Structures are given as structure tokens and as C-alpha cells.
Amino acid sequence: MHDGLVTSRALHDPNAELVPGSLVGERYVVESVIGHGTTSIVYRARALEGGGAVALKVLRASLARGTISATRLEREAEIVARLDHPSIVRLFATGWIETGQIWIALELLEGETLEALLQREAPLGLERTVRLLDDVLAGLGAAHDAQILHRDLKPANLVVVRDASGDERAKLLDFGVGRDLRDTGPRLTAPQALVGTLAYLAPEQLTPGMDPDARADLWALAVVAYRALTGRAPFGLRGARMVATIVRSDPSSPSALVPALGASVDAFFARALAKDRDARWQTAHAMRDALRALVR
């Protein structure tokens, strides 16, 4: 489950491990639980200095220092700390509490996940989809330029917020299974282990012997775009035959589902969802240019 940083749907966790008023790192005061997942709990907290609100992501006590989950959260903090881009959630600080639990303080996003938006309003229309995913591709391009793969791009990890002008913007978060290609330390997942969410995995991630690269992130974003434009996932969202469908079958042309989309959108997805990764756009920057061209 997504360890949300989003404030629009606050969650109550009866097993919250930090109570309101708890002081973390001598700099943040816990206010409430706003999200939770299998490995961590996310709290709304306030900085003692300046009073700004943050999303405080804290490893569950049962997964304290020394576990793979602790190492993964520590690496997530290291990855996000390297990325300074308006379309990527910002990291403010990180540390450990006395029980051996790592915490990271992140930008608190006032909005909702793209997943929630799609469930309520899809299809979103071409201009709105391009505007939102243009932001995401800009952030993803910055991450790839820094040699960082996200590896779990999906609507639940994209947050739609409003900027100072009231316009919708999209932000990328949750680098929990991200990979820093410069990191020569031991990998936290076995080479053939599936990383990410099946409906958004590229064929090469499902093919033994292939080492996925940044182009797998671009495939995942193409799946997100297809769903935003048509209201349907190109290969479904679940099912026993999904792996074979992703590897062997082509999805319906978007215009077959939404005729107003037209041939140019069909051509975009024919390339973006090509089984051969060499036939896709090779960089987020190139894919962003092609996406923008759809509304010119």
C-alpha cells in the first residue's frame, strides 16, 4: 500500500506508534496519522523552528535498524536528498529515534493521488493529461539525469496539487524501491525479483535475463497516460494472464476507446508501449517533447 504523503484523506491508525505531541529528532512535533503502509507510518508533524508542516515517514518499530526495510528507507532518503526539482517531493531532514527506527521528513502535499482522481473522473481529456504528465516527465528526467530509477511509477505515487495560481500540478513521490545506478553496494532485491506494481511493469521487467533501465520507468508512465486518457489500463489492472498479456499482446488503440483522441495519440502509444525498449523513446526528455506535441 502507498505510504501516502497526501492530506486530503487522513487515515486513522489505531496502532500508531507515536502519539500526538511526540518529539522526533528534537525538531518535529507529531500531530496526527495521515497514512500508513506495511513498513512505515506517515504522520503530519510540525517543525519546532518556523512551525511548518511536514510529512514524517517513520519505519514501523517491528522493522527497526538492521532490516532490509530500514536500509530501503535510508536509501530512499539518500535518493530524494539528491533530487531538487519542483515535480519531485522534497526531503527536509532524516534521522533515527531511540528505538532504532529511521524517520524522514518530507514535503507535505495538499492534494490527492492521481489514482483517486482517475477513479473519480477518468478519462481526463488530452490537454489535462498532457499538462499533468508533463510535470511528471520533467521530474523523471531530472531523476534519470542523476542516474536514479523510480521503479514504481503508478497513479498512487503521483500527487495532484494546486500551485499558487490555482492550476493543477503533478508531483512524483515514493522512491522506496528506487535504484541509484551509481550505488555499488549490495542490491536489496535479487536480480530476477519483480520490483514495482505488475500492471505498470515493462516487458523487460518480466523477461528473465534482462536488466531493466530508465526505459522501464517510461513504459510505466505510458501506462499511466493511457489510463488517464481512456479510463482503462492497457493490459488490465489484475489477473492471472497479465504477465503474458504485457509481454505478448498489444493494447487497443486509444482512439478505439475514445475516438476524439485520433491518430496522433495512437502513434504516440504505439511507440511508448513498444515491446522492444529500443523502439521506445530513450529518454524522459524525448518522451516529454512527444507528449507536448500532441496538444500543439
Automatic annotation (TrEMBL):
One of its GO terms (molecular function) is ATP binding. Residues 28-295 form the Protein kinase domain. InterPro entries: Kinase-like_dom_sf, Prot_kinase_dom, Protein_kinase_ATP_BS, Ser/Thr_kinase_AS. It comes from the Bacteria. Keywords: ATP-binding, Kinase, Nucleotide-binding, Transferase. Gene3D superfamilies: Phosphorylase Kinase, domain 1, Transferase(Phosphotransferase) domain 1. ATP binds at residue 57. Pfam families: Pkinase. This is Adenylate cyclase.
